[in-house]
Task: structure prediction
Amino acid sequence: MTAEAQGQGVGTALIAGLARASEAEGYWTLQAQVLAANTASLALLRKSGYREVGVRERLGRIGDAWHDVVLLERRSTRTGGRGLPTYECPQQATGAKS
Ligand SMILES: CC(C)(COP(=O)(O)OP(=O)(O)OC[C@H]1O[C@@H](n2cnc3c(N)ncnc32)[C@H](O)[C@@H]1OP(=O)(O)O)[C@@H](O)C(=O)NCCC(=O)NCCS
Result:
């Protein structure tokens, strides 16, 4: 995005459009990964309803330098999602002797 275009709501509109489109398709969770140093994109995502769920240390490489990457997610409050598991996890066999 050019410097002149920044700060005019384009990023917010795109992120909101993605949320609307994904919810219309029944998606429940959106994930994003952003370099920890990219404070502008992190601010945009937080403002758009994403929350930080973890930091993957030294995951991204730019040139010779490794960078931490922040994992964020947005959970929809409007759709439960299609394709979510509806079965119970099989119980692990216990006490089995070989
Ligand atoms: C980060 C970026 C994608 C956001 O898109 P945008 O259209 O400018 O964002 P918006 O105008 O919708 O602003 C939404 C929020 O983003 C954050 N934000 C935007 N530009 C920012 C900046 N320069 N510094 C810090 N936060 C910023 C703010 O939280 C802002 O909310 P606010 O206006 O209430 O403070 C865009 O500004 C950009 O490309 N920035 C420079 C390059 C960059 O960092 N790119 C990502 C590299 S991977």
About this structure: The chain has a mean pLDDT of 88.
